[in-house]
Design a protein that fits this description.
It holds the Pfam family RedAm-like_C. By secondary structure, the protein is an alpha/beta fold. It has 12 helices and 8 strands. The chain folds into 2 domains: about 5-160, NAD(P)-binding Rossmann-like Domain (Rossmann fold, 3-Layer(aba) Sandwich); about 195-285, no CATH class.
């Protein structure tokens, strides 16, 4: 098997394991390395080859995927095998800030390797799910060269040559996801603690998510002119947040998230009163 068909995966957490499994299914010769050998042994059972050192792992193929906790771990790992970086391509799938991705790219390229920054937007660790995709940034010609390989993992969404942009879009995605997860748990707990039918509520919640798609488009258009609210809407959202807080706390459900939302509406109302004009929550969040 040629070198271009041989790839390496370093870091075998849930996403690293999913990466290995997808590559093996596609017929690639996969070498793995992990700090703890147990996870590597599990991948060997699926057909991967285990490297005993990082240097051996890098030597096994032209492309190495990193699936680590953060970029700081990249320095610890690749620092063990700097001479082997020359001429290789590193695809870092790790999550971190955009600036740390740019700094990491500089560190790798200064040591003779090419670099691609990437991140899975996936359904949990199911990178083959129809809704999963891979956000990628870095030199376009390099991404094009390895596009077939990258598409084996998840459909590639190239977002530009700036190494940090993959993390801008990735972290923006999580910024949306995290409060949705927490607010759904609050809502579900409110329904359950109230003695209402949680299964019925889940159906309503799914319909709400479909409706939210339209709101996102509307909010994005409004953001171009500074945001969506007028004073009446700000006051309505403040009152609505209080109703959610009351409904939650009446049955002993934590409403921290709703208090935080209410504080934003109230800040916008106060800022509007002080300025004599509308100050939207988007302007506050953006830091205007």
């Amino acid at each position: 098997m040629s070198e271009t068909q041989s790839v390496t995966v370093v870091g075998l957490g849930p996403m690293g394991q999913s990466t290995v499994e997808s590559l093996l299914r596609a017929g690639y010769d996969v070498t793995v390395w992990n700090r703890s050998s147990g996870k590597a042994d599990a991948m060997v059972e699926l057909g991967a080859r285990k490297a005993s050192t990082v240097a051996e792992a890098l030597d096994a193929g032209a492309v190495t995927f990193l699936s680590l906790t953060h970029y700081a771990a990249m320095y610890d790992v690749l620092g063990q095998a700097v001479p082997e970086l020359d001429g290789k391509t590193i695809v870092n799938l790790s999550s971190d800030s955009p600036e740390k991705a740019r700094e990491g790219a500089a560190w790798v390229t200064e040591r003779g390797a090419a670099f691609v920054s990437a991140g899975y937007m996936s359904q949990g660790d199911d990178i083959s799910h129809p809704l999963s995709y891979l956000i990628v940034s870095g030199p376009q010609d390099l991404v094009t060269t390895h596009e077939e390989l990258l598409n084996v993992l998840s459909p590639v969404h190239y977002v530009g040559p700036d190494y940090g942009f993959s993390q801008v879009y990735y972290q923006a995605g999580l910024t949306l996801l995290h409060p949705v997860m927490l607010s759904f748990e609050q809502a579900l707990a409110m329904v359950e603690r109230s003695g209402a039918d949680t299964e019925r509520y889940v159906g309503y919640a799914v319909k709400s998510m479909d409706s939210l798609k339209e709101f996102l488009v509307q909010f994005a258009e409004a953001a171009k002119v500074g945001g969506v609210e007028d004073i009446a809407m700000l006051k309505m959202m403040d009152a609505g947040a209080q109703h959610i807080i009351d409904a939650s706390e009446e049955v002993g459900v934590d409403a921290t998230l709703s208090h935080a939302a209410q504080s934003m509406w109230r800040r916008a109302i106060d800022a509007s009163d002080q300025s004599g004009g509308v100050v939207t929550t988007y302007r506050l969040i953006r830091g205007d």
